[in-house]
Amino acid sequence: MSTLDRRRILGPANVKPLIFGLSSSQSKQENKIEEEEEEDINSQISKTFIKTGLITNANGSSYLEYNGNIISVSIYGPRPVRGTFTEKTSLDVHLDDNTETISDLLNKKFCNYIENNFTTVINLNKYPKSGISIFINVLSINNFQKYKYKLLSLISDATTIALINSGIEIIDIVSSTFDLNSNTVISFIKSNEIVGLLSDSNKIYKDVNDFNKIIKKLGNDSNIVKNSLINYLMSGN
Amino acid sequence: MILSVAERSYLYESLKQSPPIRPDGRSVKQFRPIQTNVGFLESSNGSAKITLSDGSECIVSIKSKVIEKASIESGRDTLVDVDIEVAGQRDDSSFILNLISTLKSIYSNYISQESLSLTNRFTYKLFIDILVISNYSYPLTLISFTSYLALKNTYLPKLTSSVDDKEIEEQPTFHDYEFVKLQIQVPIIFTVAIIDNNYIIDPNSQEMEVSDNGIIIGWYDGNIISPIENVKLNDGNSKSIKPELIIKSIELVKSLGQSVIESLNAAE
Amino acid sequence: MSRFEIYSPEGLRVDGRRWNELRRFECRINTHPDSSDGSSYVEQGNSKVICIVNGPMEPSSKAEMSTSKATLKISLNVTPFSSIDRKKRSKNERRIQEIVTSLKRTFEQSIIVNKYPRTTISITLHVLALDGGLLSSITNAITLALIDAGIAMYDYISSVSAGFYNNTPLLDLNQLEESDVSFLTIGVVGKSEKLALLLLENKIPLDQLESVLAIAIAGGHRIRDLMDKEVRRHGDLRLSKLANK
């Protein structure tokens, strides 16, 4: 214990740290910019960074960065499973959240969504008596409360790329898109068929057509996402 | 349920027909018959039981507790708590956790604060405890119907002290034996199975086994609400869904909701 | 000292019973015919218990299999809403595990287990409401469900609790009495005076034990008769259905 008079360093007992808060109009402005950007799929794609095959121990891996969200996915398998003969591959998904913002319930929900998506897409009959494990690592998250399903759509895209990298047979590229207004994420294959759908908001759909519009809009966006994913894969990185 | 290759293809082919031929002879929008019981647990504020024709059974109990509103605002407590126990399933399995998260979000969104409010400082909190004794099909519809009946038949103690306790701190006191019926609108959740170009409501275990995919759709007061999600109804033979089938299923649910509510209300 | 008068000088208990009176005992068997091999529902006072029996069936893993006898699997679920104040209980709670162990021991002796080698019998219990007599009501429920499942047993196991308070033995305690009175729970084998189960978790003077056991055995016989009546009623119902065909 030093004999130094700490009061001199700490100052008076009732001091408060000085915080330069955003003025409400400024934060509104920023929100607006973010929301507008959410509408513009092309600008989002130009801001996305993808790299595959970084994890050499895994059979396939991908790394995706977008607007402060960083996700890494590694695929292990198909590897033999112990026990009795099974006709199909079993798929298991694990999500590891390094930022500790995703609750256990949501973690399970995300895993479930990814599992549902890819059991539909992976040619499970091709790999009997084996298992495929998907490990998702979320390294960084931007504004989770508002954009949690955006994160899910990014995870889904990263998983597709990782699966392709691993050489596991899939029916088609899964491209996922997110709608902020209705807090909906949809995953498409074959231009407009749906493999995954998750919508969780307190919005009331008085008109069924409203939901139809969301599906249409996300379908169009997904085609753009899919094309850019293909472009990336073809470019041979 | 394990089906042979022949059974599977027979079922799939007959469900593919237009209109689909269901193994129990139901139409596309017909539910299995249910048997209901309400208010049989004296120590709960509300209780209900539904038994389906295939022996699936669900019991829901509603219990209440007085809490401070401040604890909800600060996020320490929630207005509604949901707990599910399915016989033969672990409490921490992803299946159970998914059911809990779906139900928690739908009930906390649509059970209004005003309906549970007691005074300026205190409110009731509801504990919805769900016990699925046996189930053979996707249990969410069964659970939501049973919870609907239980919530609609919930009686809470009548407040005798004053509602306004802003100025003078006062503990709420209650009438010795009189109860007030809880007046709320309760959302329900439907399950639709997709088979080829057909969509059928309330699939049974055989239909689930051969279905291409499943969708759960929320319904509240004449309108469609979240959750709108696809669910895995069987292990490993799921296929993609065409968007127009989703829209058609949503339309079907929207048109059916009111008549389901009416028949559930008649069961009281 | 409790706020309540457990046993008044006039000889009445908190719920108005005499010392040797049982609570209302109602039971039904075959309550879940579509989803189980055997099922029962027991109401003992305000306690309500559902019991589901499945089996004898092939064990899910070879490790559970015994080549000489059936193995019993008992799972006890005390629902969070069963008590007055909601309380979530884990299945791994020590108290629950102890009850399961004593039930297993009791029924391994009462079922003719060597008739069913290489099988398991799974017993699932749901306690919907609890007002004392947890062990006794679930024991009775299991007996009835096993009978409904057609599993061979030596005899009925009928169970009841009895306490000792102020030099008086009291039969079939409720929750209030249980918290104040030292008590034991027994399982009587049929109409005999043999016990398949005896659980005493606090103390009763040795010289008084006999009087408590005597009243408990008498109560157990009464419950056996009530259960037998229900089994026969259900049997007649089944028989009349067969005759009509």
Automatic annotation (TrEMBL), chain A:
UniProt keyword annotation of Cytoplasm present: yes
Protein's cellular compartments: Cytoplasm; Nucleus
An individual GO BP term: poly(A)-dependent snoRNA 3'-end processing
Alphabetically ordered keywords of this record: Cytoplasm, Exosome, Nucleus, RNA-binding, rRNA processing
Recorded GO MF terms: RNA binding
GO cellular component, one term: nucleolus
Principal subcellular localisation of the protein: cytoplasm
UniProt domain Exoribonuclease phosphorolytic: residue ranges: 47-169
Alphabetized Gene3D superfamilies for the sequence: GHMP Kinase, N-terminal domain
Entry keyword Plastid: no
InterPro entries: ExoRNase_PH_dom1, PNPase/RNase_PH_dom_sf, Ribosomal_Su5_D2-typ_SF, RNase_PH
Family note: Belongs to the RNase PH family.
Name of the protein in its database record: Exoribonuclease phosphorolytic domain-containing protein
Organism, scientific name: Wickerhamomyces mucosus
UniProtKB/TrEMBL annotation, chain B:
Every Exoribonuclease phosphorolytic domain range: 186-213
Protein's GO biological process: exonucleolytic trimming to generate mature 3'-end of 5.8S rRNA from tricistronic rRNA transcript (SSU-rRNA, 5.8S rRNA, LSU-rRNA); nuclear mRNA surveillance; nuclear polyadenylation-dependent rRNA catabolic process; rRNA catabolic process; TRAMP-dependent tRNA surveillance pathway; U1 snRNA 3'-end processing; U4 snRNA 3'-end processing; U5 snRNA 3'-end processing
Domain of life assignment: Eukaryota
Record's subcellular location: Cytoplasm; Nucleus, Nucleolus
Gene Ontology, cellular component aspect: cytoplasmic exosome (RNase complex); nuclear exosome (RNase complex); nucleolus
Gene Ontology molecular functions: mRNA 3'-UTR AU-rich region binding
Primary localization: cytoplasm
Gene3D superfamilies reported in the protein's UniProt record: GHMP Kinase, N-terminal domain
TM spans (from-to): none
Pfam families given in the database record: RNase_PH_C
Keyword terms of this UniProt record: Cytoplasm, Exosome
InterPro entries noted in UniProt: ExoRNase_PH_dom2, ExoRNase_PH_dom2_sf, Exosome_comp_Rrp42_subfam, PNPase/RNase_PH_dom_sf, Ribosomal_Su5_D2-typ_SF
Stated family: Belongs to the RNase PH family.
Protein name: Ribosomal RNA-processing protein 42
Species the sequence originates in: Wickerhamomyces mucosus
From TrEMBL, chain C:
Localization, UniProt: Cytoplasm; Nucleus, Nucleolus
One MF annotation (Gene Ontology) recorded for this entry: RNA binding
Keywords linked to the UniProt accession: Cytoplasm, Exosome
Domain called Exoribonuclease phosphorolytic: residue spans: 21-151, 155-218
Record-linked Pfam families: RNase_PH, RNase_PH_C
InterPro entries on file: ExoRNase_PH_dom1, ExoRNase_PH_dom2, ExoRNase_PH_dom2_sf, PNPase/RNase_PH_dom_sf, Ribosomal_Su5_D2-typ_SF, RNase_PH
Gene Ontology CC entries for this record: cytoplasmic exosome (RNase complex); nuclear exosome (RNase complex); nucleolus
GO annotation (BP), single: exonucleolytic trimming to generate mature 3'-end of 5.8S rRNA from tricistronic rRNA transcript (SSU-rRNA, 5.8S rRNA, LSU-rRNA)
Stated family: Belongs to the RNase PH family.
Subunit structure: Component of the RNA exosome complex. Specifically part of the catalytically inactive RNA exosome core complex (Exo-9) which may associate with the catalytic subunits RRP6 and DIS3 in cytoplasmic- and nuclear-specific RNA exosome complex forms. Exo-9 is formed by a hexameric base ring of RNase PH domain-containing subunits and a cap ring consisting of CSL4, RRP4 and RRP40.
Designated name of the protein: Ribosomal RNA-processing protein 41
